[in-house]
Every structure is written in C-alpha cells, then in structure tokens.
Queue: 2 jobs
Job 1
Amino acid sequence: MRFNTLYFQASRRFLTSLAVPKRLPFGVLTGKDVGFFENVVGKANVRTQELDDFNKDWMNWYKGQSKCVLFPSSSEEVSAILKHCHDNKLAVVPQSGNTGLVGGSVPVYDEVILNLRRLNKNYSFDSSSGILQCDAGFILEELDDRLRTEGFMMPLDLGAKGSCLIGGNISTCAGGIRLLRYGNLHANILGLRVVLPDAKGSVVDFGSPLQKDNSGVHMHHMFVGSEGQLGVITGASILSPPAPTSVISAMIGVQSFAGCCAVLRDARRFLGEILSSFEVMDAATMQCLEENEQLHNVLTSSPNFSLLIETSGSEAEHDEAKVQCFLEYLMENEMATDGVLAANKQESAFMWKLRETAPLSITKDGYVYKFDVSLPLNHFYELSDAVKERCGDKVHRVVTYGHMGDGNSHLNITTKEPSFEVENLLYPFVFDWVVAHGGSISAEHGIGQMKRDYASAGKSECIGDLARSMKKVFDPQGILSPYKMIM
Amino acid sequence: MRFNTLYFQASRRFLTSLAVPKRLPFGVLTGKDVGFFENVVGKANVRTQELDDFNKDWMNWYKGQSKCVLFPSSSEEVSAILKHCHDNKLAVVPQSGNTGLVGGSVPVYDEVILNLRRLNKNYSFDSSSGILQCDAGFILEELDDRLRTEGFMMPLDLGAKGSCLIGGNISTCAGGIRLLRYGNLHANILGLRVVLPDAKGSVVDFGSPLQKDNSGVHMHHMFVGSEGQLGVITGASILSPPAPTSVISAMIGVQSFAGCCAVLRDARRFLGEILSSFEVMDAATMQCLEENEQLHNVLTSSPNFSLLIETSGSEAEHDEAKVQCFLEYLMENEMATDGVLAANKQESAFMWKLRETAPLSITKDGYVYKFDVSLPLNHFYELSDAVKERCGDKVHRVVTYGHMGDGNSHLNITTKEPSFEVENLLYPFVFDWVVAHGGSISAEHGIGQMKRDYASAGKSECIGDLARSMKKVFDPQGILSPYKMIM
C-alpha cells in the first residue's frame, strides 16, 4: 500500500500548501437534519458511518470529514435536500463517480455529501434525432453500451468510463480520447435538469431535448464545466453521434516533436472526417511502461515520440484505404521512423492498453506530480524540456503523454519519495510557464481543490468577481461545493 | 416596392400587437454625448443623419428612432462608449450585419446604435490547431474565403453569409445549413472578447484560444445566443474544421413525411461521417418556386417532399461510392419516387438555388407569416397540417422547408395582403402548438422583438428571473438592447 494516513496527510498539505481556506460559518449537521434527510430519501439512503470511500478521492490525495452521505433517487428528493440545506446554511458537495483528479468531488470540511449514483431511473432515446434523455446518475459506460445497441454512442470516452457518472462528466466538462472528433460537451449537451440550492430548491429545465433552440439565454452551458458550483445536475439531454462501424488504430514513431506536428497536419488532410484520436507518448512514457509494467512498444525503432492514431468511420474499406495511403505518405516522405497498423482488435486493444496504462505505470515510480495543461502546439513539448532543465536529477522521470490533437498535455514528474524541494521547483513554476506561453493550467481535469489558488492566473481581472456574482444568482447562500473553483 | 411606409407600420403593429413595451427611463442623447462619441471614434464614425438603413431591419418589419449610429473600430473604443452610456444611462443596441429576422439588431426607441462593421482589423489563424482568432466585425463569407486558402473553413454557413458579421452570428447562435455536421456555435466558439456595459466598460476575455480549457466557469457560452443582452462581443476564438475536398449533392423525392424520416435514418447509416446537410422542401415550396421564380424541380416525379442531401468528405471516390450505394438502397427498397445525383458543380448549385431561393419566392405571394421552429421529427410536419386545417382558404399557401436533419422547420404562411384575421388565427396558435408538442418557438432566428412575449412559453417558472439576475450581473443599468429577449 503506497498511501498510508501519514503520507496522505503530507501529500494533501503539499498540494494546498499555499492557502488552506478556513472553514466558513456554515451550519453544523444535527440529528434533526439527519432525521429530515431520512424522511426524504429513506433511512437506508442516509449513511453516517464508514464514510471513508466518500470522504476521500480515489488518488488518496484529499480527505474531508463529512458526517453524512445522502443517496437521493430523484430531482424532487434533491430539491427537498437542497432547500433544507439552504434554509439551514448547511454546505453540500455533489458527488458523482468520485473519479476526479483535483479533489472536486469530496468535502473539504464537514459538507454533506450528495451522492448521485441512485439517480439512474429515467432513460429514453430517440433514434430519429440521436437525442438521449437520462438521469445524471448513469455510469458513462452503461449509457454507451445501451446506445450501441441502437447504432449510436456517447460523444465522450475516458479511462474512468466504467465508474464515472454522466452528471459528473457534464459538470466537469470531461474531455477524453475522442474530443478531437466529437467535440467537447458543449457541442453535445442540449439541455439540463438542474436543482438549485435556493429557498425553493428550484428544479429547473435549462435548454431542451432539441438540436436547435434559440428561445432564450443558453443557460445550460453555465453548468457544463462549473464543477457543481452553481447547481446540481440531475438530468441531461445529450446529442449522440452514430457509432462507427469501422475503427482502425495505428502507432507511428517520430523523432522530433516538430515532426509530430507535421504528422498531425497531414493526418487531418489524409484522414479528414474519420480521424478520431491523435495521442502522443514520449520516450519516457514508453520506458516507464517497460520498466514498471513490462509492456513493450509495438514500434521497434525506439522513437522519441509514439503517436497513437485512431479513425472511426462507416465503411471499413474506405477507411483502410485512407489510413494506408496516409501511412505510405509518411514513410515515403521519411516523416516517421516506423509505423504499425493494427491488424485486428487485439492489436488495436494493445496499442490502447499502452496509452491507457501510462497513468498507472508512472505511479509505480513512487510519487507523482501530475499536470494537465493545454498549450499551443508550438510550445506543447517545450514545457517538458523546461521542467527537465529546472529539476535535473532531483526527479526520477519527466513523462509526457496526452491528447496532442486537442493540444492537451499530461505532464507527469515522478520521484521516489514526496519531496518539498521538487514541489517548490514545480509549483507555481509550471503554472506560470503555461500561462506565459498562452496555455491553460487545466485542460480537462478542472480546478477543484488542487488548482484553486492558481485559477485566476492569466485571466481578465474581473472574471473572478463575475463568477462570484453568478454563483450568488444560483446559490445565494454559497453552500454548494465551497472552498473550490469559485471562492 | 412591396413595402411602403404605411404597410411597414401596419406589419410592425401586427407583430408586436400583444404588448408594445413603454420606453424605459433611459437618458436622452444630447449634443454633449455626440461630442464625446466623436472624440472616441472620430467625427467620421459618428452618424446622426440618414439613419434609415440602421434603424430598420432588412425585412422592413421593424423601425426604431435612433438619432445616432457609432462605428467603433476597437474594443477600447467600444469600452469608452459603453462606459459613457453606463454613466449616463443611455440605452444601446449592438448591430452587426443587421440581417436578423426578429428585429433584434435595430433600436425599438432611440437607443444609440453601436454598429460593429469597422471592427475588422485583427485576424490570425493557427493551421496546426485550426483555431481562428479575429475581431467580431468580419463578414462571415470573408472569413470563410480566407480560411479556405489554408484548407479550412468556417463551421457555419447561412444565406446571409455575404453580409452578416461573425459577432452577430455568435450572439444569435446562428444555425444554417451545415449544423448537422459541424455542430452549433457552442461546439466551435472557444473564447470571446466581450465589452461589458458596466462602470468601467470592462474588456473581458472569456475562455481562450485553446481547444480544451477547464480552468473556470465557461462563461463565454453565456454570450453565444444571448442576442447582445449581456455584453458586446468584439472578438472571438473559433475552432475551424478542415475544408472538404469533395462535396456531393443529391435530391430525393419522397411521398410521405414518415418516408422522409426513414430516409434520414438511413442517410445517417450509409453516409455516416460525411453527411453534411439534410434539407426538406414540401410540394408547396416547389409550387411557389415554379410560380413565382420559374424555377423547376430537378425531380420529375412531383413528389410531396424533396430532400436535398449533401455530403462533405476528404476523398471523392469514397464519397461517391457511399452516396451511390445509399441512393441504390433507397430505390431498391422503394423509399424514393426518384432521385438525382448532381453530376457537377452547376447541377449541385442549382439544387441549392432551389433551397436558397425558397425564402425569397414566398415573399412574392404578397405577405408572409414566417415561423422558425424546432420540433421532434414525429411532429415536424404535423404542424403544417394543423395550420392548413385552421386557416383553410383564408391563406394563399402554407409552405414548409427547413433543416430537417436538425429538426428545424421553416413554416411560412402566405396571403395576398396582410390580414388581421390570419394573424389572429396564427398567433399564438402556432407557438402554443409547438410548445405543446415539445418544440421550440425559435430554432435559429432568436427572440428579438418578434417573439419577446412568447419567450417564456413552456419553460421552467424561474428561468425569466434567473435571466434577469444574470443580466444585472453583466449589464447593471440594463442599457443593452432593451425591450427584447430579457425583459
């Protein structure tokens, strides 16, 4: 077991060392509150013991001290709970699959945990429009499986799909491996049912289950990516794309990052509308996979960069011809050291296993400092070099992989043991560097607790005030997920 | 000339007959104000005479009485203007190409007109990411032309592309003919520069020119589709898709609307990722084109519905094979009365001419009552039947065409002369019918002045209050585009 309690506390202190917020003057949960909640959701759905799994995030980086987890199963129950919390000024943290990486879905102090996993009753799909309407508590993979039986798919896919819930995906604007093709969730969320923590516990339908609706301010988009700060998403209307009938994967070796950019440019040209993923792993990622997981690259040229490219289309023969033509072009023009086209599902699955095991493999080095940044492509890999230069041999490995097609780099620095020195070298250096180079300090993971103190970096001065004013409109008592994105 | 002044006034009275709002206690423009504006934008860019083109919309449905049009050329100038208007409580209406259909871009009373067409200096494009950054005053077609020289395109296309400005497109969340493929503007707008009408005339960058940015509330989406109620968009970061190298059009005749739905379902299956448009025109549309424009359908079977389908792809041979296979399937299964595949650009252009001339052709009947609604497909064409039954021979024609692939119907009722009787038959009947059948009273045209009184129909009770509270955050004096979407 890598994380014991002491270790856990140390790591938490590290990551919030700049400013641990004080507990705000919220109410303190009483037996009367618990009784009220039991009336609303039933005694079996109020949990006041053995709460560790809900108080902690799955990385064991953050731990709150909530005394109570509630499991509502309808918007009406959520409404009654939030109205009560509003009236009694009890702080609340909405929790979906609790698969986040920034401490957003666990309490900081004693917030009531509103776990949404029982909110999974309503499901309807219209195959003529591709519009899914469902409760927020469905597991992403379950929705995807259901849609595939009708020839459709969910417009997002990510590592945590087996346990994350769609409501959490939406409230964090989750990204993942096919954003390049299907767009971010703003492209696909048509409407949301949201419960507000106001005096009425208002249940509000924002947007609609229609592809086009210009009949008012498009307020549902405010809840996409606002990490549960403004309301609790209890249902969604989602535009689902047709599922591809042909999926092809290929791995391509490239020696320079500039070369990777050239391959991306030509992938867009040759593969056009069928390009669905463009992932990068650097040599350090591959070394880590070999050393820690005994997984070997399918490429034999030991390239500095391995690009995992996927196409999704509706006609296998056409797609294969396009990919073949693209790979031949790369070889003829000496743009790649070597390339492997997956011959079947097993080979394809293995390529994806390399990519998807990368996050796990680095944890086996000891301790990991994780970054999830967006950068313009001309600076994408420079960051890795800057960190290597700054940290030298004080760190074990500097590993970069990520969704290159989206400009999203997952930079990871590993050490054998947690180290204040390395922490001080990295924070706020990496964030400052990213902002100075026109990037974002959070591409897809969000702000949560982890990046709270950096969230305003590089932004227009009044953004914070506007966000606080907006929060006041939807959450007048400020009880939703305090101490996080909007402070 | 179809519209004389008398006529114009009558039609305006019709369309806002339910509740003409009173002028609010805003300031009245003085010579001192004009002097201030001249200092900011230069004397040549303040216009106080011959303002008809700016006070009226292009359909001649609405006319305001502004005394002053300003032509700023930078965010800083817009800022100085809005700060002054805030301080003096002068109402302002932002105006882009003034091509809207709901009276949103013209003043209702004496609002200062902030015309944004000179805001077209900054333009930059990153071909590695496909991200365009530009001022809000560029003409849509000009941006599209520029991007095409680099192998990219604008993610939207609409009839007014030669005169509408991108800022107006964004603030109205314009739809158009390829939304099916490239998504609505929420899918493609990554960031916005907005000037707020607050005490500072704050210039704020919301979002960023990055494909993924989860570093705060995604506030830029609030301005997409809010019709200039919350701030003035002066610049945008836009994700541009690669331009297709192969575009194919086909017209297909179908006898029943249920048959059209079946064709759409199979188009998604056979054409998958290359399907870029799916438009419908009913028999009345074709009759109108023949009688008023002497344009004849390319289909010889005189079908009840003509479907115009377009594909956009990266490999002509593959696309042609897919379309051929699809058309053969339709014929073999007797799903179409006949079909024509455009053999060349001229034939394709003619098919689109039919579709794009439809809005003009109906105006030649005399007077037109226009509706732009979203409906679930199972009710899409029922509306036309309901209107025919209700109006009988009191109307000349009931014409339906639209973006069927998006569930967006353009229903048009024509009469020889404007008629109170017909007006009373249609309003609010059509809106009520649409709401009762799960649709939206505005799919893409917006609310503006035209639908102000109906905007809350079918919505959650507190939506209006929330919108007003949001407006208060961004526009504390309520000076931006009053008497329209948010009242």
Job 2
Amino acid sequence: MREISTAALQMGPIQKSESRAEVVARMISLLEQAHAAGAVFAVFPELTLTTFFPRWYVEDQAQVDQWFEAEMPGPHTAPLFARARELKIAMSFGYGELTPEGQHFNTSILTNREGEIIGKYRKVHLPGHSEYDPERAFQHLEKRYFLPGDLGFPVWRNLGGIMGMMICNDRRWPEAYRVMGLQGVEMVTLGFNTPSVNSQMSSEGPEDRLFHHRLSCQSGAYQNATWVVAVAKAGVEDGHSLIGGSLIVDPNGKIVAETKTEEDEMIVHHCDLEACNFGKSTIFDFKRHRRIEHYGLITQRAGAEPPD
Amino acid sequence: MREISTAALQMGPIQKSESRAEVVARMISLLEQAHAAGAVFAVFPELTLTTFFPRWYVEDQAQVDQWFEAEMPGPHTAPLFARARELKIAMSFGYGELTPEGQHFNTSILTNREGEIIGKYRKVHLPGHSEYDPERAFQHLEKRYFLPGDLGFPVWRNLGGIMGMMICNDRRWPEAYRVMGLQGVEMVTLGFNTPSVNSQMSSEGPEDRLFHHRLSCQSGAYQNATWVVAVAKAGVEDGHSLIGGSLIVDPNGKIVAETKTEEDEMIVHHCDLEACNFGKSTIFDFKRHRRIEHYGLITQRAGAEPPD
C-alpha cells in the first residue's frame, strides 16, 4: 500500500464582495477539518480565492488585476501556508496568477507537507471567448483574462506518488490526461468552476453538466489508470449557479466519493496508489499497446479538417 | 436534418462448429429486419463470421487460416452483399483478413448503399498477448494471430456524412477517436467481442466490463461530438461468455439505444448528423481550443516514463 489520505475540499460560492481574508479563513477551516479526518493532502478548487470573475466583462485592467495574485504565498495566503505547515498537510489550489512581467494565467500550485511549493500548472485549455458576446446568457471570458498555459502538463513526485494537475475544462480533453499518463501519473488533481447551465444552450442544465463532468473525469482516470480528485467551487455566485459534484475517482474509473451539497464540504478517501498498477501493467500498458505511428494528426493539426 | 437511420445488429454467440453459411444466414436475417425497420445503415460486430478464435491457442497455421477470409466479398459472403444491394442498405462488419501476401489483420469494411466496399480499417490496438499464457483464465491471443493495423484511422464520406471505423479495444483509446475527430467524423462504428470476465482478474465481471465499455464509447462520442455505434458479438461462445451492451451513443455522450439480450438482436435509431454541430462549434471547436504545442509526448513516446 502507498496510501494518500486525500481530502477534496469543495468551496461554496464566493461573492464578488467577499474579501480574500474571508475566503482564506474558510479555506483554513476546511484544512483543519481535513487534518482532523486524517488527510495528508488537501485539494481546493480552481480560482479558489475569488468569485469566478470570467463571467464579468470588465475593460479596466486595474480592476481586473484585483482578482489576481502577484505573489504566492502573498499577504493574504500566508496564513493558509502557515497553517498547512503546522498541520503537515500538502495541498493544491487554484488562483489567478499575475507574473512580474504582467502576464495573467489561470494557475494552480502543489505543495509538499512542509508547505513548500513544488509544482505549478497554468491552465492550457481556456474555454469561452475574449470579447463581449451579447448572444450568451452570461459571459465566459477566460480567453480575455488569461493567456493559455505555457508550462505543459508536468508531473511531480509528492507524498510517495506521482502527481499532476489540470484545471476545469482541461478535464474534457483526453490529451491532458494522456500527457500526464505518459509520465506515469498516479493522481491528477483538478479544480473547477462550471456554470450549471450552458451559456450557449439553455436546455443544457445541471444534470447534463454533471454528466459530462463525471464522464470526463471517469474516462480520464480509467484510460490512464490514475486517481482523479476533482474539486468544485459550487453554488450561486453573484446570482449565477455553479455545479457541485466534487469527485474522487479511482484508477478503475469508479467514483468512490462525491459531495452532496453546493456549500463548503469535505470528502475524504484513502487513495491507494498501488491500485494504479493493474491497469498500467495490463490493458493500459502503453508501451505494449500504443501505436504512435498512427497518432500523427493529434500533434500535427489543432483544428478538424473534413475530407474532400 | 441529415438523418441516417442506423441499425446496430448484435450477434449472439457463434460456436466453433458453426459454418460460414449458417452465420451469413443469420446476418441476412438481421439485415432484413433492419431494412423492415427503415434502416439504411447496418452495423455488425468484430469478427462477425466466426467464433472469437483468439481465445484458442493453435500452432498449426493452416488451422488458424480457416478463421480468415482471403477475399471480400468471397464465396461465403457474396449472398450477404447481394442482399444488401437489393435492400439498398449500407453496412459495416468485421472479419479476419488474409492478404495475398499472407498477412493477417483484424479488419472491418464499410459499404455504400450500392453494396460497394468504400472503406477498410485494420485494428490498431490489439489487446492480449502472443504466446500461451498459463496464468490467464483463458487466452486472448490477438497479438499472435494479427498484425497491428497499418491503415491508420481514416474516415469516408458515406450516406451524406463522415464515417470512421474502429474495432473493440480501440474504443478504450482516446487517440483513436481523436484522429478521426480531427477529420470531422460524425459517426464512428465499432464491433466488439469482450469477454465477460477479465482473464487476468476474475473479480472484474460483466458489470465492470459493461461499465468500462459504456464509459469508453460515451466519452469518445462526447469529446469528439460524434455518433458512436458499438455492436457486440455476445453470449456464451465455446463455453466462454461475452458481454452484450450494443449501444448507439449520441454526440452529447448519451446512450440513446442499447440491446437487452446476448442474442441476435437489433436496435435502430434515427441518427441526425446535425446534432454533431453544436459540440463541434462550441466546447469542442478544436481549432479554437486545442493546444498542440503541449501534446508532444502523445506522439513522441509509446510507453510511460515516470520522472526521476
């Protein structure tokens, strides 16, 4: 057994008016619950520190920058890191990253049990659009506020296992899982903020959105024989609803734990990394079965090109 | 609407002792049922014409070759093609292909409504092993009897849409769907022979096998916004059980029809290819969202290489 007792720490809604200090206090409370439940690893959502601001169209860059962190840890998040160090609990969470060069990314980090940042990931698959779209029920301006991630899909050794990160929409892209699978990943963490209704098709509501979410996490887990820990920011934020459905999925693709609310809520599972071995050495023993000579289009073209 | 009324024609078991003539008679009967139900496209399983022979270890190549077809159509299958032409029903089915050069492939073909073969696919992802394995509950010798497919994952225009084929284990590999998705595929057909118990883990029974089957077909359909028509050879063959669960999956990843038996059984659905458009133009508009600069490992390495 190589067990990582893992807590998925779902966050309820964060209103625009809520301060970083209020949010960090909630995070610390969840972290303490996770520690009390025996967890050594705590996973928080995408953009944990703020409301899901890509729903708002804002032209003033100074106003936009208030949703970003120029330092990590920074003044607001230092107490979170301090508490994690005291509790010896490793963690992952997402935030808006503003670099010294003025670049903006949708980022997540991974820490070890000493509270040191050992990994950083910047979201590659940005959904949505970059200009105000009057045809949508609400905006989804990730392509406006963020650059596509420039760090690829790295993995890190942590807590005795091999860990990778993705963020929200990445989970719908099998390429993201596979690049990590090809590095032997055993646990993928991902945070998400997923509107409960498709902004471009009002008939696609929360049931469908949860279905696609689960399908994407479960297939990624199964097809790479890895644990997947998917954590929502959920509930009604600024009048807009986000799905819950935080999940822990085993390397067989089965959901072993799922949240029941759209509030701050913890689920914990003892994730045995040895459970990855069967899949990785049989049906998904990539070296024996993958035929890369036939996969060329995957890296040759971004878009679809129908035949003549 | 660009509707293809499609029949998934599940075959019950085919015993080792059953003749090609008997099998083809069953296929023609199913084809007639499909035509009577208004279908213009009929999809049969993998290795439709014989028992799933990779479960048998045979050293005598002449005996092995009896499971293969040297011509298509050939003497046994000519009546099937003739009936399909009369009924003006296009079809896809799988068989063991023996080439003039003596190569063996696990192959499927696609015909148009005139009964002409317009596409051929040779299975790329061969599961199992090549030598007798005493540790398995039964053998799965696809790597012994077949060469890996050498035709890639092409697509063809047929019946007003863009069609591709895969076979059985291919459905577990998102690369297979994606290469076709990058050619705009709107309907993927696949036949399968899936043992009801994992030969290397007896606790993985039919429920798990059906779960993984559905998960793989549904995620492939959703993530490429394509119809998937998956057709089983099912039931107890030569004393060995194969799952049923033939499916028609819509481009949203939802199962719209599924067989209920492990016998010869038809399901039909009016597949509207226009239903692919929403996914292909929004969340899975590949050109806007895919970031091929980060997918390099997918084509650079076959096997997984954990970090140092």
